[in-house]
Amino acid sequence: MCKEVYLDYAATTPCDPDVVKAMLPYFNDTFGNPSSLYSLGQKSKKALEGARTAIADTLSADPTEIIFTSGGSESNNMAIKGIGFGNKDKGNHIITTAIEHHSIINACRFMEKQGFKVDYIPVDRYGMVNPDDVRKAVSDNTILISVMHANNEVGTIQPVKEIAEIARARGIYMHTDAVQSFGHIPVDTNELGVNLVSISAHKLYGPRGVGALYVRKGTKIEPFIHGGGQERRRRSSTENLAGIVGLKKAVEISLKSMESEATRLCRMRDRLTEGILSKIPDTRLNGHPEKRLPGNVNISVECIEGESMVLSLDMEGVACSTGSACSSASLEPSHVLIAMGLPPEVAHGSLRFTLGRYTEDEDIDYVLDVLPGIVERLRKMSPMYKEVR
Ligand SMILES: *Cc1c(COP(=O)(O)O)cnc(C)c1O
After folding, report:
1. For residue 148, which atom of ligand 1 is closest to its CA?
2. How far is it, in rounded angstroms, from Cα 340 to Cα 31?
3. Where in the chain are all domains bearing CATH 3.40.640.10?
4. Does residue 326 carry a pLDDT above 60?
5. How far is the CA of 138 from the centre of ligand 1 (A)?
6. Based on C-alpha coordinates, what's the Rg of the chain?
7. To 5 degrees, how large is the angle CA 264–CA 270–CA 275?
8. What is the pLDDT of residue 345?
9. With contact defined as beta carbons under 8 Å apart, do 95 and 145 qualify?
10. Does the annotation mark 326 as catalytic?
11. Are 104 and 80 in contact (CB under 8 A)?
12. Class of 258-388 in CATH
């Protein structure tokens, strides 16, 4: 009998059944366009604004500060491009980090082609940004600092609050990509002191294709989807009401059990980490030992390709990833692990297990059972490993 163990919650999460239930009426019962004046439209409008208020509350935000989007990538693009183009009279310098999600990195690369100057701040061996490096990079031309809240590959939680203080003191907008942290650890716009925050529903048991960008009142942002003027003229297109209601429900469920769930995941996370490190020689934990997401285990296994391990684990029914999901298709080693100073051959042998709501102790036992054999078999075939031993 083959067990099925899903340990890739950072790539995406299954929709919570209660989220699906909450969404269903908005496909064919309450289907009106929220912009329509008749009652069917107004019923949709009420649901839309109710969701906006509920989500805003969880972020300590005002409902007018929430823009619904198609997900984390769009929110990130809107933050980088919207702030860049909306404030180019004030400067053309953007600061971000070397370990951001590709939706930030590639949006920044695009901005470089548009005449902006971008600094990609390096990280230490734990994948942590040093606020002093950000402080040194700031200039009179800096208009935006974007630093992710928690990294999707190695789980390191960044000093966003400290960096936001640097930004605020210089009158610079501060954005954080909270897609991996929102719903899992506290995300409060005032506590963090940020101007913009990206979130995405499918990383917290909501549907794919919906997210939001928090934009603090008074922030100058240029829209980049022009049309009928929805979302206070900041993001046109008929609202994805079912998705938005799903996001609201997902947030409610996640926040209600956030603390107990974090405790449960940390315990299983540490057991998986310690189990692998003690059972398999020449392995190491990537990311910060303490300041990391509750469900993230990222391990380097020397002298084996991550892809081979992922495929072997898949044959045993275990779903996990190497590098990040988006770059799994390419043979480039993860830009995050490289930025942390791992030699490419060690970065190539990385495995990311991300635990979540449906992970149980027996799943951890199962991985600890099958992984050592897989590594041993693959290492026997690896000429590199024989040389090292
Ligand atoms: C998944 C992810 C995104 C992209 O979100 P989508 O909704 O899939 O577009 C952005 N940033 C981080 C950190 C992520 O993990």
Report:
1. 13
2. 48
3. 17-256
4. no
5. 26
6. 22
7. 130
8. 80
9. yes
10. yes
11. yes
12. alpha beta
